[in-house]
Write a structure and sequence with these properties.
mainly alpha, two-stranded antiparallel sheet
């Protein structure tokens, strides 16, 4: 089965129904007042496209889309079972964070990077509180609000949540137009391999050539070999004060030629 193709047995994903906001509210009222499971099933089927759209964010994570789709459906069902019609918010606005949260939990549980039990406990409690606050206030809570609800320092919550984040591949696309995709690695600069650094290296070598042999020796030992002025003085048989004067004179001389 292709890695990134989602297939639902017996269902043509291209023909999945899309419910209007009015229809969904009618179904929610029926489900919540009468306990009508057929209305719940209709809500699930009518929002499968929402799950499909969410799992696109998690491609190139090494997971089969089918698995992510199933996990996303669990998040969808949780959102349907906990949605409050009294809140003035669209169902999709409420459901998307729930679906994303469920998928992220799945990815964390399958993360090869091991995190200590204490950190995982804090992180999972924070995620539970986050879901509770989303359900209560119909908006994404801040780290400070989660920490206040848990009665733990904000830094502890932030550290715990960071610790269980799944690693991001350098080859994960972050933008895709009609042309070639842009990957994470394309946004990371390499300060050791820049034209400016390369040109500075050439300028330094050219300036060094204009120094005397003793000045070259002192600068090489000081800045390329990492030796102290005292170590340089002992090695070439002069005082530290002389090394200091020669070093300063050599640097001034170099600056004139750079």
């Amino acid at each position: 089965m292709p890695m990134n193709k989602v297939e639902i047995p017996g269902v043509n994903t291209a023909k999945l129904p899309v419910l209007t906001n009015t229809k969904m509210r009618e179904l929610f009222r029926t489900m919540q007042s009468d306990g009508d499971l057929s209305a719940r099933d209709e809500l699930i089927n009518g929002n499968l496209r929402l799950v499909l759209s969410v799992i696109q964010r998690f491609q190139n994570r090494g997971e089969h889309s089918d698995d992510l789709f199933q996990v996303g459906c669990i998040g969808l069902m949780k959102a349907i079972d906990n949605f409050d019609l009294g809140q003035n918010v669209k169902f999709s606005t409420y459901a998307v964070p729930m679906i994303i949260g469920e998928i992220r939990r799945y990815l964390r549980d399958n993360n090869p990077i091991r995190v200590s039990r204490s950190l995982r406990d804090v992180a999972y409690k924070a995620l539970q509180v986050r879901d509770y606050l989303v359900h209560r206030f119909a908006k994404e809570p801040t780290i400070s609000e989660i920490a206040e609800e848990l009665a733990v320092p904000r830094e502890d919550v932030l550290y715990a949540l960071d610790a269980i984040q799944e690693p991001v591949s350098l080859f994960e696309p972050i933008y895709h137009d009609s042309g070639d995709p842009i990957f994470v690695m394309d946004q990371i600069s390499d300060e050791k391999n820049q034209d400016k650094t390369w040109l500075e290296g050439i300028a330094i070598r050219e300036a060094m050539r204009r120094l005397s042999e003793r000045e070259k020796m002192i600068l090489t030992m000081r800045f390329f070999e990492g030796k102290t002025q005292m170590e340089v003085a002992d090695e070439i048989g002069i005082s530290q004060a002389q090394v200091s004067r020669l070093e300063k004179a050599a640097l001034i001389h170099m600056r004139k030629h750079m």
